[in-house]
Design a protein that fits this description.
The protein is α+β, with helices and mostly antiparallel strands. The model has no long low-confidence stretch (mean pLDDT about 90). It has a single domain, classed as Amidase signature (AS) domain (Amidase signature (AS) enzymes, Alpha-Beta Complex). It has 9 helices and 10 strands. An 8-stranded mixed β-sheet has the order 1-5-2-9-10-8-6-7. The protein has helices spanning about 15-20, 30-35, 60-65, 90-100, 115-125, 150, 155-160, 200-210, 220-225, and strands at about 5, 20-25, 40, 45, 50-55, 80, 105, 130-135, 180-185, 190-195. The chain is globular.
Length: about 230
């Protein structure tokens, strides 16, 4: 199955991770149609929405994304790995560093979840012509529901909103970047891959995403996989 939605400020990437699914957004998807629209975010940032995909398997997203796209080779890019925002992400970052076969560089990001402008400044400082950014998200909507509307009423409601642990996935679309969210064995917590919105860059990002695939728990498979056969 494939879910299709519009993403302005994280409305595809965040639900995907909250449900331990893969998500992808890019302004290259239906770009001519979406160029006719613009919206204003809850914090008054004007943007054009992107189309995004959600699926249990990365292969499905990859196949659908390339349906109407010409075959393009992947471009050699540096892998730029960010710090983590909280203790729930540390194991995921450690696993990424230990498993990746490519040389990596490191960058410190603010993870200022209460300020989209600061998050955008962080990403604007990245050289996406030559790098793929690897950052970390979550646990998304596990402890609190991180909706901008519910968080705008008071300092307390804003503080509670931040416990949804949504970071750079909220501003990917606003900067016309492309991204893939990759779930992990940790509930609602995963890896965000970000790149320039060009096919050669996206193909490189997809290749990197395939190296991060994980084995879902048997209990999850028993509940949600229609092809599940119990091990004897």
């Amino acid at each position: 199955d494939l879910g299709i939605g519009t993403d302005g400020g994280g409305s595809v990437l965040a639900p995907a991770l909250a449900l331990n699914l893969y998500g992808m957004i890019s302004p290259l998807i239906c770009s001519s149609e979406l160029s006719l629209y613009s919206k204003k975010s809850t914090d008054n940032i004007v943007f054009r929405p992107s189309i995004g995909f959600i699926a249990k398997h990365l292969e499905i997203i990859d196949e659908v994304f390339h349906i109407n796209e010409e075959e393009t080779t992947a471009k050699p890019l540096n892998v730029l790995v960010a710090n983590t925002a909280n203790k729930y992400q540390d194991d995921i970052r450690d696993q990424f560093i230990s498993n990746i076969k490519l040389p990596v560089s490191h960058v410190n990001l603010s993870y200022a979840s209460s300020s989209r402008n600061q998050l955008m400044e962080d990403l604007n400082a990245i050289d996406f012509d030559h790098n793929i950014l690897v950052s970390f998200e979550g646990p998304v909507d596990l402890f609190e529901y991180g909706d901008s509307l519910s968080g705008h009423y008071s300092e307390y409601s804003l503080e509670q909103q931040q416990k949804a642990y949504k970071y750079y996935l909220k501003v990917i679309n606003m900067l016309n970047l492309s991204a893939i969210i990759v779930p992990s064995a940790s509930n609602a917590t995963g890896t965000l891959l970000v790149c320039k919105s060009e096919m050669s860059h996206i193909n490189t990002m997809l290749k990197l995403a395939y190296t991060l695939q994980f084995e879902r728990s048997e209990l999850e498979a028993r509940y949600f996989d229609i092809n599940y056969k119990e091990k004897l």
